[in-house]
Amino acid sequence: MRIVFMGTPAFAVPSLNLLIEQNYNVVAVVTQPDRPKGRKKTLTPPPVKEAALSLGLPVLQPERMRSADAVAALAELRPDLIVTAAYGQILPKAVLDLPRLGCINVHGSLLPRYRGGAPIQRSIMNGEDVTGVTIMYMAEGLDTGDMISAVEVPITDEDTAGTMFDKLSAAGAELLGRTLPALIAGEAKAVPQPNELATYAPNLTRDDEKIDWDRSARAIFNQVRGLSPMAGAFTYLNGEVFKVWSCVPAEGSAAPKAPGTVLAAGGDGIRVQTGEGVLVLKEIQPAGKKAMNAAEWLKGARLEAGTVLGNGGAV
């Protein structure tokens, strides 16, 4: 058995480690090229590359997996099976046809729901209380292949995109370990996806990060959790970007004000009127500063009740 593993972010690392721990023959790892990161734009390898090198595995980093050179390099490896997990590029038919056992993907949702590049974030942003991992055969469409196995994972109000990445990453690796023996033995039973039930989770944009105070407190709470700790949700304060990293819907009710109006600042945080209910901002990040506890920030900052968040600025 010659396996090629393809993945890029930290989500994929446990699946790669599982293959090595269970003594599968991983002949190479394919990941995205190193990218500039941070304010200094330091060229940084993806987590899967770091993991692969620590395991002594050869690494390929084609800019485009569809290029003839990339396909040829993969063909030289003579893979029996390709395992992918959050690789970040759609594989062309020339790659899908290479391994005799096919290409399988560890996808962070319960397919056919949340096909696409941001299933974990969008499941939280949409207020789901359960998600999961599906292992499927890869096809030419976007996450449309036949499903081999799946596992459910609950989403709690305490979860963020960060905690769910960790949970689903571990669940995906464990599911992969349970799925491979039957697949290799030719005993795996794959079922087509019911396409009529499909929903999509496109990659996030700047628009997805902007808080619309006309929405309910619960909806904004879900948005903030679904964007933390990656991009973060934001609004505007005095025309400058004001990020919100943590918040909770307030209990009880308040005299209605215009959505985005600061009702009180102090004590347990910053209380803001939404289109339905009140939201308490717990962890924030003013422009030019680091993320901090809202109560701590308020010790040295003036934020008057009646201030309206969201005015000014463009996405």
TrEMBL record:
Gene3D superfamilies noted in UniProt: 3.40.50.12230
Q: Which residues bind (6S)-5,6,7,8-tetrahydrofolate?
A: S109, L110, L111, P112
Q: Where does the Formyl transferase N-terminal domain start and stop, copy by copy?
A: 1-178
EC code: 2.1.2.9
Q: Which UniProt keywords apply?
A: Protein biosynthesis, Transferase
Q: Which reaction does it catalyse?
A: L-methionyl-tRNA(fMet) + (6R)-10-formyltetrahydrofolate = N-formyl-L-methionyl-tRNA(fMet) + (6S)-5,6,7,8-tetrahydrofolate + H(+)
Q: Which residues form the Formyl transferase C-terminal domain?
A: 204-301
PANTHER family from the xrefs? METHIONYL-TRNA FORMYLTRANSFERASE, METHIONYL-TRNA FORMYLTRANSFERASE, MITOCHONDRIAL
Family, per the entry? Answer: Belongs to the Fmt family.
Q: What is this protein called?
A: Methionyl-tRNA formyltransferase
Organism ancestry? Bacteria, Bacillati, Bacillota, Bacilli, Bacillales
